[in-house]
Amino acid sequence: MELNLTKPVCFFDLETTGINITNDRVVEISILKVFPNGNKESKTWLVNPEMPIPAETSAIHGITDERVANEPTFKELAKDIFTMIKDSDLAGFNSNRFDIPLLAEEMLRAEVDFDMKGRVAIDVQTIFHKMEQRTLSAAYKFYCDKSLENAHSAEADTLATYEVLKAQLERYDELENDAKFLAEFSSRKKFADFAGFLMFNKADEECFAFGKHKGKKVTEVLDQEPGYFGWLLNADFPLYTKKVLTAIKLRAFNNKI
Questions:
Q1: What is the Cα–Cα distance from 144 to 79, expressed in whole angstroms?
Q2: How do residues 218-247 score in pLDDT, each as one tens digit?
Q3: Which is nearest to 12 in space by CA: 165, 149, 126, 158?
Q4: I need a surface site. Which of 44, 99, 165, 207 has the fewest CB within 10 A?
């Protein structure tokens, strides 16, 4: 079954120096862009992370410091990557909780104003876990009856994720072949930022999802405790979370004028 698309969707996967969204860096990115007419475009980049790759991480994806030493940095690649994805929805495997948040951090560090406005995100892992509770390799075997060779290669994982989603649409009648539906189905809690520090309440108001103010409205906390905003901006939070907090504060300020 081919995807029923009204705009392109970019399946992508990141290999990184680790799993810390704020501090770790991309060492490989692969993108498979699928157009509404069924055409496809793919690109894979190795990336110099400008930091050492831990040996235990290299053991997983096979990318070493030596292999990326002469590759471009993410900042050097950012405009090309953004050009490829800017008109597209996004899709991946565990992408809502890891790949998209980390991609956003890299983009913002490269001074590219990345956000998800006007696009949706389909997380194939969430669909899989809701339906079958397995890993990507098991999903590929289960849905496509194929063994995933070169697992933890960004290109292999990206292609497998694309094939798994198509097979999921074939298998489950309750899944609609529609990007917006799949994005909503594959989402978890509704958050205002990628990393899950700011969530929406039932009234669609931004609230803190952590710490002493967990569950409280952001606007009320920042109004009652002005110094908390400064602490948040100087603390070790993702750049995108800080961007959202700043936008909330500016919106509240403008509403008072």
A1: 34
A2: 999 999 998 999 999 999 899 999 999 999
A3: 158
A4: 44
